[in-house]
Amino acid sequence: MTAATIPARQRDINRAKVCDDNFIEFVRGWREHAPARPRAEAPILPGSACSAADFVDLFESQLISRHLDLMARVLRVQNKVFYTIGSSGHEGNAMVARLTRDTDPAFLHYRSGGFMAERFRKLPGMDPVMDSALSFAASAEDPASGGRHKVWGSKPLWVLPQTSTIASHLPKALGTAIAIEQARRIGHALPIPDDSIAICSFGDASSNHATAQTAFNTAAWTAYQKLPAPVLFVCEDNGIGISVKTPSGWIARNFAQRPDLDYFYADGLDLAAGYGQVQAAVEHCRRSRRPTFLHLRTTRIMGHAGTDFEIEWRALEELISVESTDPLLRSAWIAMASGLMSPDEVLERYEATRRRCFAAAEEADRRPKIGSLAEVMRPLAPYTPEAVKAEAERADYAARRLEVFGGEARLPEKQPPRHLAIQINQALHDLFAKYPEALLFGEDVAQKGGVYTVTKGLNKTFGGKRVFNTLLDETMILGLAQGFANMGMLPLPEIQYLAYFHNACDQIRGEACSLQFFSNDQYRNPMVMRIASLGYQKGFGGHFHNDNSITALRDIPGLVVGCPSRGDDAATMLRTLTALAKVDGRVCAFLEPIALYMTKDLYEAGDGAWQTAFPAPGEAMPLGEGRVYAPEAGDGNDLVILTFGNGVPMSLRAARELQRRHGWSIRVVDLRWLAPLNEAFIAGQARSARRVLVVDEGRRSAGVGEGILTALVEAGLGALPTRRVVGADTYTPLAGAALLVLPGEAEIVAAAEQLTD
Ligand SMILES: Cc1ncc(C[n+]2csc(CCOP(=O)(O)OP(=O)(O)O)c2C)c(N)n1
Ligand SMILES: [Mg+2]
After folding, report:
1. Which ligand 1 atom lies nearest to the CA of residue 85?
2. HEC profile for 236-263?
3. How far is the CA of 301 from the centre of ligand 2 (A)?
4. Which residue would you say has higher pLDDT here, 74 or 507?
5. Ligand 1 atom closest to Cα of 242?
């Protein structure tokens, strides 16, 4: 075919219309004599694993998916629909849904209309068309996200909504598969059957992403050790990613021969051929519990999205050739060639589905939208203070505690005051006694007990099934955490250094923290992420072991960030954080200041003043509550120092010096909670002060200090003499030069002295 011979209809810029017309024209033109109608249980075509009954359902799911796409294209321009990334060409993924269960957790590619329509059949009384229409229309009644985003998601159908970030869902899908198996090993009751598998679909271009590659690698790493990881990776290969073609044959070349990632191919363009192939992959995954890679052949018609006018950048001949592989044409052919349906019957179903989709969309358009900021944010960060307090203070595990600590006399609260690292270690033992579903994992955390021995003994006491080393990849550590959380466990992932959190930040920023938002709080992935953090390690490490940037954590919606400066606070904060995770499903970060891990003294060598007693169970710290260090004399109003972390002992020493020099009465305030910042508390502390100093060891730009100053100004305290002592906007150098970039005591004293009241 050359451009000159291409009929006018085929040159239409509106490819959705072309594909629509192609279907109708193809079916209308059908002239063959129909054979006898196959029985429901008979193969749809000779030798096919797909029965006529299977085919009828699958074909309908394909039609629903297609007409949702066509509807979206039409109604987008009328502002009734707000999303046009479609599933056209991928409708064969309905086979994956049919051959798996509605209790197999699914993490889906955005082209999953066919899958969803088919999975909806698994539960009675559900309507894929209306539910999808509400989602397309961003209606507040959208059962998946409450109108916050167009996502494929469903609570009853175990479809966890995904973000638009490609490949970001693979680590948590694998994590969920591993969690399914881990549950049995720790005696945790799963919310789904024990032989469930996790399903994860994605595109061919996405398979190259680092986040995808770490999931494939970790799956293979797991299987290589003969550990089960029943994940079904479904690579929907349409040969292209937006406008970039995947080299022909690349997916098979890259995945067919990977040891410990079992490769299956299926023709997703042909239900009769593909069904048995998909079945083989699903059965293999479920039976062998091994990571399985299903290479599903698809095509992409109607462009990447409604805004993608392929005709402008792609040869028309090529477009037409791609459109000729439309799987719906193939399904129509199968329906008619098998004698299952006459052309009229096919067209009737086609048009009836169109009417159903448009009617649903028009109805969805009349349903309410989200109308207030409060409603937008409602599921983001639920907080029920009373229930959290009760859970944090719950101490009904005394017998187990005694067992864990080895008797009454060895209980941590019966020991003399100790430093931060020991008290975190004791608090973790304590939490593990309290929560049998708690898991701790990360790099070097098991036998070694972490780089700073903070987790020492946990592996021995609670065993390798609950406290274990992962492979070296932070993205995967956080993906595992989400997986365990999805299966109802309480993950405490450890990130070895703050710099390496930044390496994998998207798993928290884009994924974990967004789940409650995008699922209207139907799904939660609670966790407490411990991160060895911040600077001032004496003579050690340089930047990456002393990273002081909290900025990347502070603005993650919904994330709770706590930072203790001493052992007793660490213990009570950890109780509150785990309670926040358990009760409200919150994602929490616990920044452990490395330089304070072993600090015992405050004012003089040997004074032991930075050691604290272990708080007995029953004590917890409310979210947002700071600690106020009372002055040695007076009301503390000559100067108030607002700080956290390493800044606390430094400020206490500086305060003593300032008092000695000037006789000032000074209050040092440890904020302890860095996100959300307790603005009312900050203002309350500053209101009566004559001077305010903010000591922030983080960086000048976008750090906690900026938040504190903003809180002061917005509380009307902008006229107070205020200064900030803060880290420089630089990487941290090695050795003694590190102290040049970080706030020091002399600087705190000097800054305070410059404040005039
Ligand atoms: C991390 C990330 N980078 C870039 C994008 C923008 N983007 C969205 S879809 C896409 C192409 C994906 O192609 P493929 O994985 O083959 O899926 P297909 O759309 O072809 O089904 C790109 C680059 C994104 N969503 N996420
Ligand atoms: Mg693709």
Report:
1. 19
2. EECCEECCEECCCCHHHHHHCCCCCCEE
3. 11
4. 507
5. 11
Q: Which residues surround ligand 1 with Cβ inside 6 Å? A: 111, 164-166, 202-206, 236, 238, 240-242, 300, 304
Give SS3 for 685. Answer: helix
Ligand index nearest the alpha carbon of residue 90: 1
Tokens standing for 39?
């029985």
CA dihedral 642, 648, 653, 654 (to 10 degrees): -30
Q: How many CB atoms lie within 10 A of CB 54?
A: 21
Distance (Å, rounded) from C-alpha 182 to C-alpha 190?
A: 10
CA triplet 563, 568, 569: central angle to 5 degrees?
A: 30
Q: Of ligand 1's atoms, which has the minimum distance to the CA of residue 206? A: 15
pLDDT digits (tens, 9 = 90+) for 683-716: 999 999 999 999 999 999 999 999 999 999 999 9
Give Cα separations from 615 to 120, 401, 508, 528, 618 (angstroms).
Answer: 51, 14, 30, 20, 8
Interval 266-309: pLDDT, tens: 999 999 999 999 999 999 999 999 999 999 999 999 999 988 88
SS3 756: coil
Query: How confident is the model at residue 538, as a pLDDT?
Result: 81
**Predicted pLDDT at 181:** 97
Q: Which of 85, 110, 206, 308 to mutate to test the pocket of ligand 1 (most atoms within 8 A of CB)?
A: 206
User: What span, in angstroms and rounded, lies between the C-alpha atoms of 151 and 498?
Assistant: 32
Task: Give the closest residue (by CA) to ligand 1 atom 13.
Answer: 241
